[in-house]
Amino acid sequence: MSDEEEIHSNAEEEEEEITDLSSSDVCTKYQEAAKIVNLALQGLILQCVPGAKIIDLCQFGTTVIETQAAKLYTKKVEGAAVEKGVAFPVCISVNEIVCNHSPLPTEELAPIKAGDIVKIDLGCHIDGYIAVAAHTLVVPDGDASPAVDSKLGNVAVAAYNAMLVASAHIKAGSKNTEVTAAVEKVAKTYGVSPISSVRMHQMKRFVIDGVKEVALKEPNPDDQDELEEKVPECEFEQYEVYAIDVAMSTGEGKARPADLRTTVFKRNVESNYKLKMKASRQLLSEVDKKYPTLPFTLSHFEDERTAKMGVNECVGHGLLIPYPSLAEKVDEKVAHFKCTVLLLPSGTTRVSGLELPEYFKSDVQVDEETAAVLKEIEEAAERKARRAAKKKAAKKKKK
């Protein structure tokens, strides 16, 4: 190679954009997206009161994400605005509905009421760097703390603790099978079942469902359908990002598509087809412009009728991937928690997701290994809180 060729090659390498956590700028974007996700969750929790409409809650959460994201990275980069906003549509799933419920304005369900179990799921991205989270709560009746029976308490505590334990196990050099085993152990201890169709995913820039996955449970050797969907083994690496997604049920954990319209979809970037219907072409054109890579909801389209007409042909030819609302049996309790973790040189860092509501309690005693992991997480959180308080006090003193 000549000196000129070598210089040109080195220049190309220097110009190549770094899109993983080895870049401090990338790390900051993930963290900023996570702050917005947590803020949206906190706001939605306050909005979950008797009489609130699901469509209004979804719109509120969307507005928070879009408004807060718009305040960041306002300068153009090489003449183009930095993309930012919703990375996963705000979904409000009530009682036996597990996830992915984001209704159209014309298909609103009954308002939520005191005692309803509400699962909130959403995501935000800054320049394609995604943070997601999910949270479970019980709608209060006035100022009183919600009454929670042992059945609901066990499944909520189990799902939350499984999320924490999974976060601790996802580290460079570990394998996804180890995480699955840890989640199953927690579920068994509390006498509940992981929702088998829910998966944890690696996330990359503009990619919310990466190739590396983590199952919540190993497939039943006697169930051919489960065996066919077995997750391939993989190893975690430094600088990766994961959505730690845990949903659990007091039932069998075999959630089925609910009797609700599917409104959440994602463009299949690997598929193309010449659509026949005008409504389908119009929908796909708008998707390609506004939502070329990340999930969206039909409720974000101004022409709802055209969107509903066109979506079936798009799905039928593999252009759009549906995210159907999933449901357990009516009498079963469901809890859903999700957070985002960054695999940094200093260790795995959880950047999104809120604390477990205090009214979710369980008398179940976990095994020593799980207890040790949870204690370590709690102590780390306490140290972080003390450092933050000390830093805040120092700033106040300077003023």
Walk me through what this model shows.
- It is a single chain.
- This protein is α+β, with helices and mostly antiparallel strands.
- The protein is built from nine helices and 15 strands.
- Strands 5, 6, 7, 8, 14 and 15 form a six-stranded antiparallel β-sheet that branches. The protein has a three-stranded antiparallel β-sheet with strand order 1-3-4, with helices on one face. The protein has a three-stranded antiparallel β-sheet with strand order 2-13-9, with no helix packed on it.
- A hairpin with a 2-residue loop joins β3 and β4.
- α4 packs antiparallel against α5.
- It is globular, with a radius of gyration of 22 Å.
- The relative contact order is 0.16.
Strand content: 15-25%
Rounded mean pLDDT is 92
**Which overall shape is indicated by the principal axes computed on the Cα atoms?**
globular
Structural class: alpha+beta
State the low-pLDDT regions, or none.
none
Sketch the topology as an H/E string, one letter per element: HHHEEEEHHEEEHEEEHEHEEEEH
How far apart, in Å, are the first and last alpha carbons? Answer: 59 Å
Helix content: 25-40%
Radius of gyration: 22 Å
The number of helical segments is 9
For the sheet with most strands, the description reads: 6 strands, antiparallel
Strand count: 15
Annotate the secondary structure layout:
Blueprint: H1 3-15, H2 24-47, H3 54-70, E1 84-94, E2 97-99, E3 117-126, E4 129-138, H4 150-169, H5 176-190, E5 193-194, E6 199-203, E7 213-215, H6 224-228, E8 241-249, E9 256-257, E10 264-267, H7 278-290, E11 296-297, H8 304-316, E12 320-323, E13 326-327, E14 334-344, E15 347-350, H9 368-398
Antiparallel strand pairs: 1-3, 2-13, 3-4, 5-8, 6-7, 6-8, 8-14, 9-13, 10-11, 10-12, 14-15
Helix pairs in contact: 2-3, 4-5, 4-9, 7-8
